[in-house]
Amino acid sequence: MRTVASICVALAAWGICAVAFGADAYMLQPGDLLTVSVWKEPDLSIDLLVRPDGGISMPLAGEIAAAGHSVEEVRTAIDQRLRPFLSKPAVTLIVKQTLGNQIFVIGKVNHPGPYPLNRPVDVMQALSLAGGLTPFAAVNDILILRRDGARQITLPFHYSDIEHGRNLQQNALLQSGDTVVVP
């Protein structure tokens, strides 16, 4: 009886973890490097780069849309595409490098440039990654540039408000491709 209860608790905890993991799954980006491995099929085990158009090309599986999809979604798509050629393909997909997931900090910061977005980063953290502001930075005129399809969105950021604990909602999490402009 005790063993059954332990197993139920373990399965429930695993189910909760699986649901939580799925909600925050990493979405592939153009520039990401993937490693595909097909068990007992060394010719189908290759590294793939997510192209600027968001697709990948794999022998037998053909063209697959990857950008904006989770690793599990792309793995499943590869598996389904290989089924006509292999009886039970065992596909593993690993993100080798997240080169496409970047933010950019430009202007009057000590170290402008691209920065990997391999964890959630807000505006203040991005400014810190860039070495902080220079003495001549216009701290209340900082902008975050974000693409929404073909549209460019501008989000204002007032450093002195954050510094004094006001308007904290403007210290938003950055998204892949965002540019922080410090005039």
Topology:
Blueprint: H1 2-23, E1 33-38, E2 46-49, E3 55-58, E4 62-65, H2 71-82, E5 91-97, E6 102-107, E7 113-116, H3 123-129, E8 142-148, E9 151-157, H4 159-163, E10 179-182
Parallel strand pairs: 6-10
Antiparallel strand pairs: 1-2, 1-5, 3-4, 6-7, 8-9, 8-10
Describe the structure.
By secondary structure, this protein is of the alpha+beta class. The protein folds into two domains: 20-97, wza like domain (wza like fold), CATH 3.30.1950; 102-182, Outer membrane lipoprotein wza domain like (Outer membrane lipoprotein wza fold like). It has helices at residues 2-23, 71-82, 123-129, 159-163; strands at residues 33-38, 46-49, 55-58, 62-65, 91-97, 102-107, 113-116, 142-148, 151-157, 179-182. A five-stranded mixed sheet has the order 7-6-10-8-9, covered by helices on one side. Strands 2-1-5 form a three-stranded antiparallel sheet, with helices on one face. It has a two-stranded antiparallel ribbon with strand order 3-4. A hairpin with a 7-residue loop joins strand 1 and strand 2 (46-49). The N and C termini lie far apart (67 Å). The model is unreliable at 1-21 (pLDDT under 50).
